[in-house]
Specification:
It is built from 19 helices and 15 strands. A 6-stranded mixed sheet has the order 8-7-6-9-11-10, sandwiched between helices. β1 and β2 form a beta hairpin. The chain is of the alpha/beta class and 506 residues long.
Length: 506
């Protein structure tokens, strides 16, 4: 990956939402993302979740067929300038890995399943780049499976929340037969109120100057109100207009009867649920009006990707924030990082490791000791747990899983079942990174700035590594002993670690 992205180069994002899949292709123009092409399809992945939270075969085929069509538009976009993110439906799907494996045969890049708060952060990023940055704003995005609510200023989110309510999920729960009734509507509104109520105090205390809505449900509601003359002179969606939309909706007996100028056919079935959710949000947060923004998740994904090229990677900010939160020793972290980068450079070509692998190893090296904030005993397991289950801005669930496995196995004994676990999660490359991190930590056990012996790691073949230690090994008796122990551990993962030094030659 290049260190910078010049103007006029393309970026692309695929947003695999619970209701719709979206593709956006954009050109970078003086630091701004200018959309040049887009596609959207109603896949309704969330509607394909059965009672056991498994994606049905039909839903998977709808999704795969859509992705195949998207790929046909991506020939001009380099793979490292594409991101593919999936949201609530795949977060919920117990068999989501099956779909991801099938999609991997179609897509040029892996799918990133992002956590709810990460989805909220990216939505805010997309919205904030599409509007004037004045004052504090509340952003509301109603998706197919979840609703994101974010408070932020300029380009920085302050509060990010993702709640379990969406137009497809609520359609299944309250309007499954297509019938529209006051009772069903009130049940949906009550359920939505409960979901939002937990964040009311925090959000009202933070406050906001404007309210912004994004994505399909709010776009449809606002457009209906504009067409019906129910919006204000600025064509904002008002509480009064939403009341009229709700009342009009309740006059229909079935979703097939719903008729509004400009309403797309595929939006009709989920509109009652979407209106109920939006009505509850307006009610609980005492909202009078909102403006609509075309910016959404896919735009946020592209701006986030652009930041990675321009050395403004939110992931590195998150890493240092985690170190600060858990009082990790920054000097020791820097020692381990420096050693890890040195070892990586020696073996990257031989092990076919790339720049993404280097970044992953570096971040794991920074974070391997955060579990000490919980307990010294088994701190590597605590570190792994924190990385697996925390909301970490910029990281997908897969990224966090990789980090968690790296730090989980950076010390103590290596077992065969651990190797199989690592291979299942990230393949041979993740296994190699685990071993590189182990060596990096071991070589810095003294926690001292005193000069280490010069170290060179070479890969003879995938199963045979050679570590050369310059100078007389007798100067570092503890290091020698630990390296002997580590040879045994490497063998458990079928890697022979040969160590060469003066008076210490395997």
């Amino acid at each position: 990956m290049s260190d910078f992205l010049i103007d006029e180069e393309l970026l692309a994002a695929i947003d695999m939402g619970s209701n719709s899949f979206h593709l956006a292709i954009a050109r970078v123009d003086h630091g701004e993302v200018k959309k040049v092409a887009s596609m959207s399809e109603k896949v309704q992945l969330a509607a394909g979740l059965d009672e056991n939270k498994n994606l049905t075969e039909a839903a998977q085929q709808r999704g795969l067929a859509c992705l195949a069509r998207f790929v046909g538009r991506l020939s001009s976009v380099q793979a490292n300038r594409l991101r593919i993110v999936a949201t609530n439906a795949l977060r919920q799907a117990k068999n989501g890995h099956e779909f991801i494996q099938k999609a991997a045969e179609i897509l040029p890049k892996p799918i990133e399943i992002i956590a709810g708060r990460e989805e909220a952060r990216l939505i805010y990023l997309g919205v904030s780049h599409s509007m004037e940055n004045s004052g504090r704003r509340l952003v509301i995005d109603i998706g197919g499976g979840s609703t994101e609510l974010i408070i932020g200023e300029e380009f920085e989110p302050i509060h990010t929340e993702s709640v379990q309510m969406g137009c497809v999920a609520f359609t299944k729960a309250y309007f499954a037969d297509g019938e529209i009734s006051v009772k069903a509507f009130e049940r949906a509104i009550t359920a939505a109120r409960k979901e939002v109520s937990g964040l009311v105090n925090t959000y009202k205390e933070a406050g906001w100057d404007t309210v912004v809505g994004s994505s399909g449900t709010i776009k449809a509601c606002r457009q209906i109100c504009v067409n019906m003359g129910w919006s204000n002179e600025k064509e904002e969606l008002t509480r009064e207009g939403l009341d009229k939309l709700k009342d009009k909706m309740l006059k229909y007996k079935h979703v097939s009867d719903v008729e509004f100028e400009g309403l797309k056919e595929d939006r009709r079935a989920v509109l009652p649920a979407g209106v109920a959710i939006l009505y509850a949000v307006f009610d609980v947060l005492n909202i009078d009006k909102l403006v609509y923004s075309d910016g959404a998740l896919r735009e946020g994904v592209m701006y986030d990707l652009l930041g990675r090229f321009q050395h403004e990677d939110i992931r590195d900010r998150s890493v240092h924030a985690l170190m600060g939160r858990y009082n990790a020793d920054p000097k020791q972290a820097e020692r381990v990082v420096a050693t890890a980068q040195n070892l990586f450079e020696h073996v990257a070509d031989a092990l076919k490791l790339n720049v993404d692998d280097s970044d992953l190893l570096r971040r794991a090296a920074y974070l391997h000791e955060i579990g000490l904030a919980i307990s010294h005993s088994g701190y590597h397991r605590h570190s792994a747990y924190l990385l697996q289950h925390s909301d970490i801005a910029g990281f997908s669930q897969i990224d966090q899983n990789y980090l968690s496995h790296l730090v989980a196995y950076h010390r103590r004994k290596l077992r065969l079942d651990a190797k199989l676990d690592v291979l299942r999660v990230g393949g041979q490359r993740l296994m190699y990174l685990c071993l590189l991190l182990r060596l990096s930590v071991l070589l810095n056990h003294s926690r001292s700035d005193e000069m280490l012996p010069a170290i060179e790691l070479n890969v003879i073949n995938a199963q045979q590594w050679q570590l050369s230690v310059s100078g007389d090994a007798k100067q570092w008796p503890l290091l020698v002993a630990e390296l002997h122990d580590e040879q045994v551990q490497f063998k458990h993962w079928d890697i022979e670690l040969n160590i060469q030094s003066e008076q210490f030659i395997d």
